[in-house]
Amino acid sequence: MINPLIQKLESYGALSDEEKAFLKRAPSEIRDYRVHEEFVREGDCPGESCVVVEGLAFRFKILPDGKRQILAFHVPGDFCDLHSFLLKRMDHGIAVAGRCKIAAVPHPLIQEITETYPRLTRALMWDVAIDGAIFREWMVGMGRRSAYQRMAHLFCELLVRLKVVGLAENDTYELLSTQSDLGDALGLSTVHVNRVLQQLRAEGLIVSDGKTLMIPDFEKLKEVAGFDPAYLHARGGASPSS
To answer: Which of 1, 143, 206, 207 has the fewest Cβ atoms nearer than 10 Å?
Structure first.
């Protein structure tokens, strides 16, 4: 169940057999969640950090008027809240986009990693750094890219991230977010999301049946989005065309 995490961390640098064995035998509870079920609430002080095993999760904030802003999508292999090991009180919530499996990793286990496995600790620090890099790129998109570019950029990003953990084949992946989720992530109304999706389809930049998304020409979509995968800092397997 922890294999996606190992695959992701090894895109930073090779882990030793001992480190991989530690992660595989580490005590963690696998939990199943239903569509849009919230598993971490704003204000919680969790004693564990969560890793996506299957499906798609997202971090979000709810405004006083009830509007939702999605702050990040998390694919298999991602820690959703590794920072809670240090910051304790959550300033946002975490929910799942579709049916999802989450591994809850106790904080004492993360403490043991930091005290015993320096290379694995650096890999987890890299994971947190990538999370920050993705957030910065999203902020640039919200402030400076058009709705069309934002959506194209997100589809490119998800392809690269899913490719790293072996979940995108032939530049195709499962699209687990709803149009409402996409709108709340990109700052768009559902009507606007639908309009942009139709435009991307009409121009042959994506092929989607509502369950999967295929990118026929990744280089062309990259150009449209202004997408440079360098901010993802992943090696081997990160290039969809490789």
So the answer is: 143
**Which contiguous run of DSSP H or E holds residue 133?**
helix 118-144
84-122: string of b/e by CB count within 10 Å (b at 16+)? bbeeeebebbbbbbbebbbbbbbeebbeebeeebeebee
| Contact assessment for residue 70 and residue 59, using Cβ atoms and an 8 Å cutoff | yes
Within the chain, strands assigned E span: 29-33, 38-40, 48-54, 57-62, 68-74, 93-96, 100-106, 172-174, 207-208, 212-214
26-63 pLDDT, tens digit each: 877 899 999 999 999 999 999 999 999 999 999 999 99
What are the residue ranges spanned by the domains of the chain? 3-130, 145-232
Strand 212-214 relative to strand 29-33: parallel, antiparallel, unpaired?
unpaired
Instruction: Answer yes or no: are the C-beta atoms of 56 and 21 closer than 8 Å.
Output: no
Q: Fold for domain 145-232?
A: Arc Repressor Mutant, subunit A (1.10.10)
> Which CATH code is given to the segment(s) 3-130?
2.60.120.10
Looking at the DSSP bridge assignments, the partners of residue 54 are 101
